Amino acid sequence: MAELPLENLTIPTSSSTAEDVVNTFAAEVKGKNVLVTGTSLGGLGFETSRAIARYANMVIITGHNDERLKLSETAIKKDNPTAKIHPLLIDLTSLASVRKAAEEVNKLAEPIHVLINNAAVGLIPFKLTSDGLELHWSTNHVGPFLFTNLIMPKILASASPTYTPRVVFVSSVAHANPGDPVNLDALTNPDPTKYSPPVAYRDTKAANILTALELFKRAKGKVNTYSLHPGLIYTNAFEKDGTLPIFQGAGVLDENGKPILSKSIPWKSIGQGAATTVTAAFDPSLNDKPGAYLEDCQIANDKVAPHASDPETARKLWDVTEKLVGESFAF
């Protein structure tokens, strides 16, 4: 497919869908190998993968449940029969599982052009993982941090004189909720008596942005990184324990757990939510804007809270996380 001049491309907007964006940037998607975490049916990761599979050379879909992975693979191939889908089991709450999955990726013949860290949990009761980490911090930050760094050789292998690989972190506007600076003590010393689901979610979503910034800095231009807010979308995440009452209390969901539709609550479809992820992964206009934060398929750096863009916090977070996983990463 001939590459269109940038000035002739349709600029994605807040109403664009993932399919719209993939079609716009088809020349960029074509031939790429993309890994997306968290791809269960009904979620953003699945819709992202489904749209990308139309043109990509290979899409690696991930999840911690083999049956759900098979359902996602079947659904994607039903929509795109010729799609090359590689299912990968990974449990981000287990560092051993993360390491095993990374080993499998590193054995593949193909390089990884784009890694999309999409999987996350939100607003759930306090729980420790087998590694002694609080579940939000493990799933949303430590697991993705370790996985990203362990497969970095595969990511760097996709680089060429005309292409810089990308790592995308799906964050949230919730990162900017008011409160104290990011509490790194909750990462290293989880305490149920000091635990708040909204604060844990806020801090881990801020950690996504901080990690994107620090990764780009440490990679010294070898990788372009981006973070984003996909929008307010009704997905399967609302069905998880403890989530429903919080959103009902915030006036977002009604007593039956359904979205409250009003002009003041900007709900998006799953396709519209995945559009910003696809934009971050492939929009060529972002090539010279690494580290950018996106909303509604556009750069929105002005919406990043100070605690999520502070270079010193980013450095501390990286160092603390390296210590937690027991190894350092250099590129």
From TrEMBL:
Gene3D superfamilies: NAD(P)-binding Rossmann-like Domain. The keyword GTP-binding does not apply. Pfam families: adh_short. The keyword Oxidoreductase applies. One of its GO terms (molecular function) is oxidoreductase activity. Keywords: Oxidoreductase. InterPro entries: NAD(P)-bd_dom_sf, SDR_fam. Belongs to the short-chain dehydrogenases/reductases (SDR) family. This is Short-chain dehydrogenase/reductase family protein. It comes from Favolaschia claudopus.
